[in-house]
Please model this.
Amino acid sequence: MTTKLVLASNNAGKLKEFGQLLAPLGFEVHAQREFNVPEAEEPHPTFVENALAKARHAARLTGLPALADDSGVCVNALGGAPGVHSARYAGEPKSDERNNRKLVDDLAAHGDKSAYYYCVLVFVRHAEDPQPLIAEGRWDGEIIAEPRGEGGFGYDPYFLLPASGKTVAELDADEKNRLSHRGQALRALVEKLK
Ligand SMILES: O=P(O)(O)OP(=O)(O)OP(=O)(O)OC[C@H]1O[C@@H](n2cnc3c(O)ncnc32)[C@H](O)[C@@H]1O
Ligand SMILES: [Mg+2]
Model:
């Protein structure tokens, strides 16, 4: 049986990756935009609370099971920033280019460039689901000052994987999905759905 679900995100990069990750698993996946679901508020200080807020919002407005992703890049020398503020690190309107420039500037005076991507996924069967399924993933790397690569989205051209010497934007889509915070979290979530 295929499960129909709504993806509670308006981020084109995430939607593309979820499409690739979920395609082989027999889900009928719809982006919330198809149902004219507006962006949810994300006022919380934790990833898990924001992901739950997004999932509930989409489930409430569509009547469908919903999957939400709250994610970001956490930089150790910056005390975990941008963290939950990753999408709007440089303010409104959201801009990957300005976010990346601010991140590089903020880190310029620091020797420690280590960082990690973090992703929490929340799946709710309906808006009042008392037992949401929750999974997380983490991916370590470091921030570099000059962008490399064309793939991925967001901070990927500046996120270096020391083991391969490549940035995430230099990986092909399959490699990113195999290694990423989002891929790890989704595989863990799917185990819980079984
Ligand atoms: O809330 P939705 O609609 O899902 O879209 P969003 O872009 O606002 O998503 P978040 O609130 O979860 O913010 C996550 C930000 O973290 C960054 N990010 C998350 N995953 C990433 C990845 O795989 N590669 C690069 N940047 C990523 C990117 O800047 C995202 O905008
Ligand atoms: Mg968001």
Q: What stands out?
A: Residues 90 and 186 are 28 Å apart (CA to CA). The pocket of magnesium ion (ligand 2) is lined by residues 42, 87 (CB under 6 Å). The domain at 3-193 is CATH 3.90.950.10 (Maf protein). The chain has a mean pLDDT of 96.
